[in-house]
């Protein structure tokens, strides 16, 4: 995968995750989303206030699982692995 495609994929995933998570939290000023691109892997780190972490994860982890699925689908390439972590 080319670097240009990697950058486009990173931007697309970051925008998608920001949009979804931004709509879930009550305190968007405490929200921070960082992306780290390494060889064949994209790591998205979501930091939110303690009250909002549970909303992002969801009951039984359903919400974060859905966000991960959407993020992986938005990359459009099976060669780039996407992982999302939530910290609070």
Plain-language structure description:
The chain is α+β, with helices and mostly antiparallel strands and 88 residues long. It is built from three helices and three strands. It has helices spanning 3-24, 50-57, 62-75; strands spanning 32-38, 41-47, 81-87. A three-stranded mixed β-sheet has the order 1-2-3, covered by helices on one side. The longest helix is centred in the first third of the chain and has 22 residues, at 3-24. It is globular, with a radius of gyration of 13 Å. The N and C termini lie far apart (33 Å).
Feature tags:
88 residues, 3-stranded mixed β-sheet, alpha+beta
Which class of secondary structure composition applies to the elements? alpha+beta
Along the chain, the helix and strand elements come as HEEHHE
What count of helical segments does DSSP give? 3
Let me know the average pLDDT.
91
Q: How far apart lie the N and C ends?
A: 33 Å
Strand order of the largest sheet: 1-2-3
Task: Give the CA-based shape.
Answer: globular
Biggest sheet details: 3 strands, mixed
Furnish the topology, listing elements before pairings.
Layout: H1 3-24, E1 32-38, E2 41-47, H2 50-57, H3 62-75, E3 81-87
Parallel strand pairs: 2-3
Antiparallel strand pairs: 1-2
Helix pairs in contact: 1-3
Summarize the structure.
With about 90 residues, this protein is an alpha+beta fold.
């Amino acid at each position: 995968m080319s670097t240009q495609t990697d950058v486009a994929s990173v931007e697309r995933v970051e925008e998608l995750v920001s949009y979804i998570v931004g709509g879930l939290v009550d305190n968007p000023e405490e929200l921070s989303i960082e992306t780290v691109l390494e060889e064949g892997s994209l790591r998205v780190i979501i930091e939110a206030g303690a009250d909002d972490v549970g909303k992002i994860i969801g009951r039984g982890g359903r919400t974060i699982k859905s966000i991960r699925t959407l993020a992986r689908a938005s990359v459009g390439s099976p060669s780039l692995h996407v992982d999302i972590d939530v910290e609070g």
